[in-house]
Automatic annotation (TrEMBL), chains A, B:
Keyword Cytoplasm: no
A Pfam family reported for this protein in Swiss-Prot or TrEMBL: HxlR
Taxonomic lineage: Bacteria, Bacillati, Actinomycetota, Actinomycetes, Kitasatosporales
Protein name: DNA-binding HxlR family transcriptional regulator
Residues annotated as domain HTH hxlR-type: 10-107
InterPro entries: HTH_HxlR, WH-like_DNA-bd_sf, WH_DNA-bd_sf
GO MF terms held by the record: DNA binding
Keywords associated with the record: DNA-binding, Transcription, Transcription regulation
Length: 156, 156
DNA sequence: GGGGAGGGTTTGATTTTCCAACTCACGGAG
DNA sequence: CTCCGTGAGTTGGAAAATCAAACCCTCCCC
């Protein structure tokens, strides 16, 4: 009997199914920066226009962006993040921080984020309960779905 | 003269160039869980074997995973995260948290992470300097690259 | 010498991407 | 009025990536 054909049930996978396609998170980046217009997105992201069209549709369907007209006659549209979209911004910040640290030297960061506290933003992922920085060795995974352990599917 | 053809220089984009392809972050998830063997990855991720092969190669080249033999004769390999790979785990946790909150109800989370502090892990992205949770409205972007503003490229 | 694993390749059919060109609806300049 | 430019996409076809299934090779065990 062959093992289960279904992959591990996982919110990481489900989230990536919405925003994990090429360009999707860059669309969110631009929209969070306030650049919600089609041609701006094309220029700043460098994506083909048709791909951008499908990504935008998907993100709107997923409830991550909204499309609103900023002008009737002539009809002109703008994409803006929803609350759910804004709540993905920390993911972007965390990705940016990793890239700055691993792919660049200190003085060649392409963008610096300033926090309202007056300092340069360095995002840190912490545990809500204790406030400590999250580190791999402090984590233990507990699968909740019957049929799945950390190691994999049980008894097909 | 048409506007620049180059997209915005950005560490988010550069990081996604390494780990943004389909399955790559799921590979990292499994490897962080300790499931570094080829057939485990195939089963738990549900990716085609050939694609997995190319993803693994890319992640190793990027310095995010290493491939080590856990047995000579017969040769058997295992992929493990490097330090850089482990430092991407917070990104995964943040994605998981978003998915749990937006795509699920409280009682159907597929996986719960336990923090060493004894509590269930709820990852929060905070500012290193002030410790406050990062929220969109507290951020200001400062592009560092000549030719680029928040809005886009300047003077082609 | 047959039957598994484990760790991949190969093959061929389907999907996606990509890029350039095209459309349509206006608004303004001449 | 005609031409030009802008915004927001569509369309068409070639090139690349994905997919599923089958295949291969090396061992180990009986």
């Amino acid at each position: 009997m062959p093992a289960a054909k279904t992959p591990r049930p996982c919110s990481i996978a489900d989230t990536l199914a919405l925003v994990g396609e090429k360009y999707s998170l860059l669309v969110l980046r631009e929209v969070c920066l306030g650049n919600g217009r089609f041609d701006q997105l094309v220029r700043n992201i460098g994506a083909p226009r048709d791909i951008l069209t499908t990504r935008l549709r998907r993100l709107v369907d997923a409830g991550i962006l909204t499309k609103r007209a900023y002008s009737e006659r002539p009809q002109r549209f703008e994409y803006r993040p929803t609350q759910a979209g804004l709540e993905l911004e920390p993911v972007l910040m965390t990705l940016m921080e990793w890239g700055d640290r691993h792919l660049r030297t200190e003085d060649e960061r392409p963008m610096v984020m300033e926090h309202v506290c007056g300092n340069e933003l360095v995002p840190v992922v912490t545990c809500r309960a204790c406030g400590d920085e999250v580190r791999h060795e402090d984590l233990t995974a507990h699968p909740q779905v019957p049929g799945w352990t950390v190691k994999g599917p049980t008894a097909a």
